[in-house]
Amino acid sequence: MQELEITSISAMSPQAKGRIERLWGTFQERLVSELRLAGITTLDEANSTLERFLPAYNQRFAVSPVQAGSAYRKPCEGSNPDELFCFKYRRTVAKDNVVRFANQRLQIFPSNGRSSYAYAHVEVHEHMDGSLSVHYQGKCLLTRPAPYEATALRARNSIRPIATQNTSITLRPKLALTIYLLGALTIYLPGQIGNRKPAPDHPWRHIPIIHNDRG
Predict the structure, then answer these.
(1) CB contact set of 78 (below 8 Å; sequence gap of 6+)
(2) Number of Cβ atoms within 10 Å of the Cβ of 135
(3) Residue 112, by phi and psi: left (phi above 0), alpha (psi -120 to 50) or beta?
(4) Smallest Cα–Cα separation from 170: which of 159, 181, 186?
(5) What is the pTM of this model?
(6) What is the pLDDT of residues 55-96, one digit of tens each?
(7) What residues make up the domain containing 33?
(8) Cβ neighbours of residue 195 under 8 Å, at least 6 residues apart?
(9) What angle do CA 103, 108, 113 make, to 5 degrees?
(10) Does 185 lie in the same domain as 137?
(11) How far apart are the first and last CA of the chain?
(12) Residue 78, SS3?
């Protein structure tokens, strides 16, 4: 309203409250009685009756204004309705020239003689069609959707190398590894991978040793 140069005056006086309450009382009581007396049963009939009721009501109860003429003014020269009628939010640009808003990331391009807008205070406009624009000191900046953060990409595509005693095995997270070694089956579950000492009764400890007389 400040940008439209409109001053809001609240009706805090009993006189102003009484005027609107009397109007609602008329519509809720007198109009309902008029519809009932006319035998209205459908919406179309009610609309046609309302077209006759309102002119007669205004002719009987209307009060002439103190100042003649229309109270509406023309918009200011150069005003853009799309920049006025929208939701505006203040944001601070990150050091990578990216603005975050509602789970979205907007990359700001160099413009207006500035190569970077890092740490600048900007306004993000959310328009009625859902589109977003970034403004700085009254000027709309050139933006585009920013790519995902590098940290998220590393976390999503990372692999964890696991070193064993004899070989190096690359294992993706949350993947169980099954190793068959010397006829014994050992299963390593996530969070349990590591070097283990075989138990005294483990089959590995009972493998017969064959001596070669030739050698």
Answers:
(1) none
(2) 14
(3) left
(4) 159
(5) 0.47
(6) 888 888 888 888 888 878 887 777 888 888 899 999 999 998
(7) 14-61
(8) 164, 165
(9) 160
(10) no
(11) 101
(12) coil
